[in-house]
Structures are given as structure tokens and as C-alpha cells.
Amino acid sequence: MFLATSLSAAYGQDAISKFFSKYENDESFTNVNVSSRMFGLFTKMEAETPEDKEVLEAISKLKGLKILAKENARNSRELYREALSLLPKNYEELMSVRDQDKDMKFLIQESGGKISEMVMVLGGNNEFVILSLFGEIDLKQISRIGSRMNINGLESLEKMEGTQQKKEGANDNSRGRQN
Amino acid sequence: MKAIHYLLLTMAMFPLISMAQSSTTEKLQQQYPNALNLFFYHNTLRMINQQENEAFDDFIKDIEKMRFLLIKKSEHLFNAQAYADLVADYQAEHFEPIMTARHEGRNFDVYLKDAGKSKGMLVLVNDAESLWILDILGTIAPDKVGSFLSTLDKNTDISQKISEFID
What we know:
heterodimer; A: six-stranded antiparallel β-sheet; 7 helices; 6 strands; B: alpha+beta; six-stranded antiparallel β-sheet; 39% helix; 31% strand; globular
């Protein structure tokens, strides 16, 4: 009974476990898993700039990365909807992008004020990607992490950073005027 | 030019047992003596890169030595159980998995062994036709592993460079 409850709880914690279990053995999908050991290696890399050092530190706090992707997928929009429907309700939407070619959603799970998982789901005209990044996630560094590790899709979060910086700038100006 | 090729080829293929990075790879080569088995030093790898591809130079930057073993499944009996046993043997040698990927029927498994100053990395590329093993003394930079695997999967892959080099 205890074992069953524990397994059920552990399963529920991983947002895309259900989706992964369903499709990870499907050879039409590209499947990538990166372990925490790999992220740990980044701590040993030499940083050339302070910004680089911050990114490497942020990467070293990650615990894992899973990606499922399908190219030339006629059912990409269907997969996109299915993946989103399987995400538990406690995932907060961080950003969504919609353009002619694709829909993207970024969702996060927070616990104790820290982001413990970020999920990206992309449904394009003929491509589908779901990505789960977990560990201790620094959102300020996330697009740089994507760029440093060559993870396609995360560069979209630069838009969010830009928006955040503009908001912060606006708030600073507003406070400046008030003072 | 051809003489240089022969010289490099001799250097690359000279069977230096002391260069064997993993006893599992060594044992596997003994089990499959007809498998293509090549050894490379860092400088030999640089010489392979005759087109001076900067990305390739980046991949091999921290590689001291590399053994390349290619088992063609049509010529040898190598099934899924043999692969599972091989992975178990590597793990018994303290190689830890750092990344796995599957793309278009080709499986990539990357393992790392960190024994203080000396580091080892294994890249296993397994598909229906063949198994390639890159047994590396040294490492490929972690931010380059993904693009390295991508390179292995494209026409500009290492096997092609090796084939071109041998021809």
C-alpha cells in the first residue's frame, strides 16, 4: 500500500512522465535524456566573463533534461494539445508564444519559492517538441542556458527577459519620479 | 600527399595496447577481431581534420587519445542482449551515463568516468546495422556533446572523415 502510494506520488511530481512513458519507445520520436552528472561537468569549465560564470553556475544546479521531439509530424497540433492536457494544474504558465508556424507554452513548477521544473511544449505545423528541465532553475539565466547548451526553443524566453527588464526599468523610472 | 596519408594511417592503426582506455573495449575487440579498430592521438585527430573544420577542432580539444571500434552487425552476431551486457561491463568499470539520445533509429549513449586527473568518455552509437564505440581518454566539453552527437548523425560525421582519411 505504502509502496503504491509512494510510486503514485513520485509519478505525479513529474509533469510529463505520462507523456514520456507513452511515446518514449516510439521510434518516430527523437528522445534525449541528460543526467545531473552532465550538468555537474559545467562547474569545471573555465568562465571567460562574469556573465559566463553566472550561466555555468546556473547550469550546475540543474538535475536533468528530457526532450521528446517529432519532425514531419502530421499530428503535431494534436500532440501539443495532448501534452498540455496531461500537465497537472499546479503548473503555472510562464509565457506563451503564438505565430503562424507554431504555438509554444512555457510552464513552471515552484516549490518553496524556487522553480523546480520548467516545461516547454511546442506544436508547429509539422513539428512537436516537449522539454522538461528540472533542478534548481534560475529564470534569469534560462535563455542563456539554452544558448550555452544548444537547446533549441529556450531562446524564445529572451523575449520574456526583455519584457521583464522593460517592466523593471519602468518601475525604476516610476520610483525615480516619485522620489 | 599519399605518403603522408600512409604515415598517418600507420600511426592511427598501430595497435598500441597501452592506449586501450577501457578493458571492456579491449575485451570486445578481442571478441570481434575483424571489427574496424583504430587508435588516435590528439595530433592524429587534428590531422584527420584536413578541412580545418573549427567545430571538429573544438570537439577534440580535450581528447588525449581515442579508440574507435566499429562492429558491423551483418558480419557479427551482436544482438540487444550483447549490447546490454556491454553497457553493464562499462558501468562495472565506473562509467556513468551522462546522456542518452535516440534519433531516427540510431541510439547514442554517452558515459563518463572521472578518476581524478584522468577522465574517460565513451560514446556508443548503436543502430540496426552497426555499433560504433568511441572510447576516449580525456573528454569532449559538456557544451559540445550535443552538437558532437549531431555531427555523428550527419553526413559530415567522424566515420566519414575516417573513411575519407583511409581512402
